Structure formats: structure tokens, C-alpha cells
Amino acid sequence: MRKMLALIALVVCCGCNELPQRVTTLPIKRVVETPAANLPTSLRPYNWTDARGSGSCVNASTVYNLTWSAKPELAAWWRKNHAGGETDTSIRRSHDAVGLRYYYTRNADPEFLKWVTKTRRSALIWYYQSHCVNFVGFHRDPTRPDDSTMYAWLCDNNRPTRYIKVPIDSFLRKWAGYGGFGLALKDPPVPPSLFSATTRS
Fold first, then answer.
1. For the chain, how many structural domains are there in total?
2. pLDDT reading at 11 higher than 60
3. pTM of the model
4. Per-residue b/e over 106-130, b at no fewer than 16 CB within 10 Å?
5. From CA 70, how far away is CA 198, in angstroms rounded?
6. Distances (CA, A) of 72 to 44, 61, 83, 190
7. Shortest CA distance to 33 belongs to which of 198, 201, 200?
8. In a domain, 5, yes or no
9. Integer Cα distance of 137 and 135 in angstroms
10. Which domain of life is it from (predicted)?
């Protein structure tokens, strides 16, 4: 018993010396990605064909939207269960069938795509002849600081490894000529990065 009391006294008397606390505040620099809906290259879907050889560009663009909205399981399911061509009616029907909420336009409304850019969303749009791609934002080219041109950035599922930049006036004219349909998911995208992966302290 005496040994136990001595041990307790030793612990109480020794304690721990308080060390001075130093708090360092790191500046959070918002990383602005270009384009706004910048899905990593390895996750950008390629077009695929159905049993009759028909392309699935609208469904591939849907997979891009789902992946960017943090729905990878649904994106994988969509690719497995959807193939072939789509119309603006059939693709909305497919979205409705699984409870996906979305906004869309049928008249090449530039305000719709401005909202898509502002909220960092991606939109599937009719572009090129009988084709669908992902619109991923209106931006200048950050690699050309002297170029003031505003571009529409597109991800074509036939060649998704590099984004396509089209001057905005030309893009809007062509988009209207291809039918002017666009669809973006209502659910928000993945959150933006706080730090650049290349930043070193």
C-alpha cells in the first residue's frame, strides 16, 4: 500500500511541463481549374457501340456528368445498361427513370451554359453532326495570357484525352445549328480543390 501511494505521489508531482503552443495559419488559395468541370483524364468516358454498331455518345456524356457529380456507382451502372443513340426526349426519360434531377434547354440558351460554368457543372450538348459531347465551361486559355478570347471548352467522347476549345461566338452559332439541346444535372459537382497538387511549401 505504501508503495502504491508513493507511485501515485510521483505521478502527481511529475506531471507534464506545458510547452508553448505555436499556431501557424496557412493561406488557402482558391485553385481555379480550367475548365470548370475538369474530370481527370483517366475518368473521362470513351464512346462505345451497341450490338448493332450504333454509337452511344449521349450515354457517354451522361457518364461524364454522373462521374463529375460524385456518382461513380451510377455512372458504372449507366455504362453497363445503356447503349446506342438517344434523342433529347429519350435521354430525359432515362434520367427520370432513375430519379435524376436535371435542368435542360432546347433552344441553345447561352445563359444556361453560363450557369453551368458558374456552378462548375458539366452539360451534355448536341454538337457536331448527330453527335453529343460535354460542355465543361466558358473560359479563356490560361496558357495564353495575352489571348483575351473566351472559349467554349468541350470534351468529345470520341477523343476525350484533350479538351477542345471553340471561340464562343462560333460555338454558340454552331450549337444552335446542331439543335441547341443541353442537359446538366441538378445535383452539385465534386467540391473544388483547395490547393494545387503541384504547390510546394
1. 1
2. no
3. 0.81
4. eebbeebbeebbeebbbbbbbbeee
5. 23
6. 12, 14, 18, 11
7. 198
8. no
9. 6
10. Bacteria
Residue 13 corresponds to which amino acid? C
Closest CA to 141 of 157, 156, 162, 125: 162
Dig out the grid coordinates for 73 from the structure. Answer: 456507382
The answer for 137, left when phi > 0, alpha when psi is -120 to 50, beta otherwise, is left
In a domain, 200, yes or no: no
Domain with 64 in it = 52-185
The answer to whether residue 137 sits within a structural domain is yes
What torsion do the CA atoms of 190, 193, 197, 201 make, to the nearest 10 degrees? Answer: -160
DSSP helix/strand/coil, 133:
strand
Q: What span, in angstroms and rounded, lies between the C-alpha atoms of 117 and 113?
A: 6
Q: Is 81 helix (H, G, I), strand (E, B) or coil?
A: helix
Compute, in degrees rounded to 10, the torsion defined by CA atoms 63, 68, 73, 78: -10
Amino acid at 70: A
What CATH number should be reported for the domain holding residue 151? 3.90.70.10
140-172 CB burial, b ≥16 within 10 A, e <16: eeeeeeeeeeebbbbbbbeebeebbbbebeebb
pLDDT higher than threshold 90 for residue 31: no
Gap between the Cα atoms of 15 and 37, Å rounded: 54
- Is position 46 within any domain? no
3-class state of residue 126 by DSSP = strand
pLDDT in tens, 162-180: 999 999 999 999 999 999 9
pLDDT tens sequence across 116-139: 999 999 999 999 999 999 999 999
